[in-house]
Amino acid sequence: MIKANNITICYRMSHDKIQSIKEYLVALIKHKLRYEEFRALENVSFEIKKGEVVGIVGNNGAGKSTLLKVISGILKPTKGNVELRGNVVPMLELGSGFDYDLTGRENIFLNGAILGYSESFLKSKYNEIVEFSELGEFIDIPVRNYSSGMIMRLAFSIASMVSPDILIVDEILAVGDAAFQEKSYARMTELMSHGTTVLLVSHNIEQIRRLCDRVIWLDHGHVVAIGDTQSVCDQYAQSNK
Amino acid sequence: MKNKAIRISAVVLAVYLVLGALFYPIAGESLHFTADSTETVSSKAALGEFTQGDLIQQSFLCEFDDLQTLTLLVGTMARKNTDVIKVELTDKYGTVRYSATLDTSTMKDNSEYTVTLDPMIEDVKGQYFTLSLTSLYGTKGNSVTFYYGNSVDTGRVDVPVEIEDTEALYLNGVRMLDDENNLCGLCLKIGGINRHWFGPAYWYIYAGVGVLLLLCLIYLVRCRSKGKSNTILGVVYSLKRYNFLIRQLVARDFKTKYKRSVLGMLWSFLNPLLTMSIQYVVFSTLFKSSIENFVIYLLSGIVCFNFFNEATNMCLMSIVGNATLINKVYVPKYIYPFSRTLSSGINLLLSLVPLFIMMLITQTWPTKAILLLPFVLLMLFMLSYGVGLILATMMVFFRDTQFLWGICSMLLMYLTPVFYPETIIPSQFMTVYKLNPLYHVLRFIRSILIDGVSLEPKAYLYCILLCGIPFLVGVLIFRKNQDKFVLNI
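^ inputs. structure came back:
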């Protein structure tokens, strides 16, 4: 289960991004150190029960990705807190932990470790990962020689080889060629169906309607509506017309 | 679960007991006392033939708890003499504390002659003594001479010193002056012993710390069984939990470092050796370094400083360079600099191999003191990690840090006796100079490797404090700021 209590994320945006001591001092002397507060999320509260699949909809800049980051622990809320039970696996961006000088095999272990898998788990799942990625003998050459499709396939295979309690998905990841896309889509839906709690962000409203039990509609950091999938989706679609 | 915690605690306690008990014989007598001697003035001139009835008087301040040896620079005029010299040491009340006769036939020309006080004079720190030398039978053609001067050798040049009135040299009651009417002193080294309270108290401290550790462990086990969390448990848990990730990251650093080079890991050996060779040639021929066993002196300095340099520079980039990961996956952020320091540490261990090989080649045989090496390396590791944490944090907010640190680390290299002897530093700057933790680390490691002995207890304290404080500061700064990293990278 996930329980979010009054999450607020506050960025301090200075007008010109200061990145060096000199710029900082100059700005300080000129009294130009002005910050503008930007609230990416404001007082967001909700509760998700175990096994629910919850969709998050909203226009660009509504705070969807920020919310996912808060729940997966990457961002600490300025105010409020998140309570959750179970291990969280974020599938935010594939392959961000790859080292391009290492071979596919070495990257499976490195990336797996970054995603929080245990050594024994990775060893037992290793063959399954290689098989799913369809890389075959390419697994032993450095990733820098892979095609982008191969990289995505490997990354997806590693990331999806889990049985998390809470799965966080930023857009359904359908990668590779048509055949692999179908396969990965099937894998995602399978992952979501085994009593896993899922938080799903998508711009594809049809996908949300099909997969989710409930929907949260965010706009400019505020929760506009939480509730039954069809009604919230209808409202959201209505507002966009 | 509880049994396991108790078992681990028992292991920790046992390790402490064994290491603590082993430490005492390994550190040896250096825990009890340190033998040391003062520096002599450089010889400027000889007194001339020292014949019957001549009297030399030289007062000095004893800087040691116990006075043990007096070393004089003598000249025998390149011949065998049969004169006998009477030595007397009187304290400030005029009481004779030591007297003996010296057989000049055993003296060698232009070399040091040591008088060992037997028994030594105890508990005289801060007291003035007067050394009197009288020739009993000396005649022209059968006598020795003594050297005096008023400057000190700083390695390359002699620097004049002001001789105090109280420490002036008298020949037959007349003060010796040089050509410019400055006072002079006898070329005299005073050797003595400083006793430490730590040695005799060691077993009490050992027991005390043991009891504290036991209480600590009991507290931790109780915390654990009650499900309460605290900092130490948190660190243990996360090290256990992320142990696999840390190993993977270290392996990654190591694999990618040499991945596309032909010689690969061999560079870890070659790098310090080649640096050492260049600096050896430069400093032993161009600058005429007078350091004993310069090869090991230089190599140990280079190995340690290279580690510090590499580790801090890797840490510096560890947060900024992993920006994509930090933005996408939650991993405790301290792991990035930690794994970097760890992989530099493995590199350090590898570069110890050529150091040991050079020790064998130069016949610097290791003694039991080499078992103290893990202590020094641990201190160096803590220091580098601490500084690395500070730099990694600063780097997130100010990208100038990398350039600033480039300059600072170069400055630090010159402030550390890597390739020069510490004696060239003017004594008035020594207090500031000693604030550099690397100075203490190098002093320690050289004492272990080259002299084969442990240093005095105070040196441990300096090492622990000067390496521990940057470590703690680093941890605190990093912890306080780590939540802001995501917003700034």
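The two ends of chain A are 34 Å apart (CA to CA). Chain A has a mean pLDDT of 84.
thumbs up if we can close this ticket
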